[in-house]
Amino acid sequence: MRARTIILTAAAALSTAALACFAASAIAAPDTIDPVADAKAFRKYFTDKFPKVKLNDFVNGPYSMNADMRKQWEDMEQFPPYEFALEAGKEMFSKPFKNGKTYADCFSNGGIGIRQNYPYFDEKEGNVITLELAINRCREVNGEAPLSYMKDEMASLTAYMAYTSRGKPMDIKIPNDPRALAAYEDGKRYFYTRRGQLNFSCASCHVQSAGEHIRAETLAPALGIMNALPIYRSEWGGMGTTSRRLVSCNSQTRAVPLEPQSDEYRDVEYFLSYVANGLPISGPGSRP
Amino acid sequence: MSTIRNMALAAVLLVLGGGPALAASEADYKAALAAAESAEKDAATLRNRWTTTESALAAAKKAAATGDFEAATASAKQAEALAKASIFQASSEKERWKDMEIR
Amino acid sequence: MASTIRVRATNSGDTTVVQALIQHPMDSGFVKDAHGQIIPPHFIQQLTFEHNGKTVFLANWGPAVSKDPYVKFSFNGAGKGDDLKISWVDNKGATDTTTAKIQ
Question: Where does chain B have alpha helices with state H?
């Protein structure tokens, strides 16, 4: 009994010491937030890992990773399944609110061809503003009820707005403001943090296993993964928002999802969009 | 007298042994549920709850509603273990996320 | 109301390639809603493509076909400027029809 207690205590002490050492060495890692360096390294990781994939093609997710899937997708793009959502989105976008104003009044350039600027950091508010959030703010300012971030209407609207920006390079700005840098860093941390009982981080699938299979799906590379959103998923039988994708990714790792458009989700969108700067908007996308 | 004392002693030892020999009571369930819910509350503060913890909690409550405190207590204890694991995950990932970072 | 049928028919020589996208829920009748109630079956049973009064493509569908079905096929004997008539009937007796010009 005595010997066992001694051994147990010693083991505990050793592991605490080991943890302390590990923690200390981890803290010694660089402290400055350098999005430019991050983006460069991020890009290099994927272009090194997939030398045959053209840089701009990463935005096509699994289709940049698998030739057979690509062929099927190219066929589908001749007559895309998201046509109905696009048309619905266009109609919604042009329909005036009860007070006579339209979405065009809330966005620069009337909301056309501006999707690539989202998310942006609002320095007045100190927050990351995503396109979905901006749409609901527009609605509320004009006396309309906000749309669910998870349902068809928001998906159709963002699909239409993304479509008007197709081909334009992602253009996310991080102002020289410590709050913006902190939001970017928070998003980056969220991306790499393991969560859920399955203990996956976003990176587990979209960095370490990009191009490989998870069950029957081919995993998209994280580079440019925001550029195709919102996406028409055959699995969903319809168009789904960025919020929906983030929420479902969470539950797929057995993590209880956060509220749509939570700080963490907006921040991770900010991070992922920024590191894909220069890559073209390919939304709305279609996926298996 | 001695026999009864022995039996009482045996009963106490059995309970302390923690084996399933004695069925869990409603009190056991309530204690287990309280511990599980408290841990899950901490996990919620860390914004790192697991879906499986939630379903174990739900299963515990469902079993308790039918009077099956054996199963209810087991589920509640599992929920507590899962909640604690999710808390551990959140704390350790505070530094460990950097291991996965592309630099 | 806008047509549920989007169609594109392209002719080259004797062959016409037809693509059509049809807006329809195609509920199989096997899926339950959030309240646990079966969503009743609602799907296209017959889809017909006609050229010069002759049926060039006939599909007899059932619950296995997914929402917003897409069809692609080719046939011979038509030319540019010809009419192609598409119609469907579903299990509730609803129908829609449209005519497209072969490009």
Answer: 2-17, 26-45, 51-65, 69-100
